[in-house]
Amino acid sequence: MITQLFFCTRPATMSSDEFWGYWKDVHSPIGSRIPGLEQYVLYRGIEDDNGAPPYDGIALMSFSDTTALERGWASPEGVATMDDVPNFVDVSKLVAITCQGHQVI
Questions:
Q1: How does residue 101 score in pLDDT terms, banded at 50, 70 and 90?
Q2: Domains detected in the chain
Q3: Which terminus of the chain, N or C, has fewer Cβ atoms within 10 Å?
Q4: Mean pLDDT calculated for residue range 76-94
Q5: Gap between the Cα atoms of 35 and 54, Å rounded
Q6: 61 near 31, Cβ under 8 Å?
């Protein structure tokens, strides 16, 4: 399993609730149609005693292997997903990591 983690920061002009609503209700239905995508989880950052989180959210997207990942992102659905990102993410602060996991529990 190959997993990509996307660490997302909302634009300064967007509230946390607007960011979450757009991500959950508009963007994720687009992304969920990427061919070969086996898992797609959204994690919303929450404020704690130390204040706002360093990221507003993290997306976890998993594919069976690198071939499926590359095909998925090259598809029209993958392109549409990436084209929509600037509508709710400050792309200058976007961090993406591709990794292979090892489940402990």
A1: confident
A2: 2-100 (3.30.70.100)
A3: C
A4: 98
A5: 31
A6: yes
The answer on pLDDT for 59 being more than 90 is yes
DSSP state of 104: -
Alpha helices in 26-75, H assignment, sequence order: 28-31, 66-74
Q: Residue 87, SS3?
A: helix
Give me the residues paired with residue 41 across strands: 60
Nearby residues of 13 by Cβ (< 8 Å), 6 or more positions away: none
Asked if 96 and 5 count as a contact pair (C-beta separation under 8 A), the reply is: yes
| DSSP category for residue 100 | E
Tokens in use for 9? 């920061």
Cα–Cα distance, 70 to 94 (Å, whole number): 19
The model scores a pTM over 0.90: yes
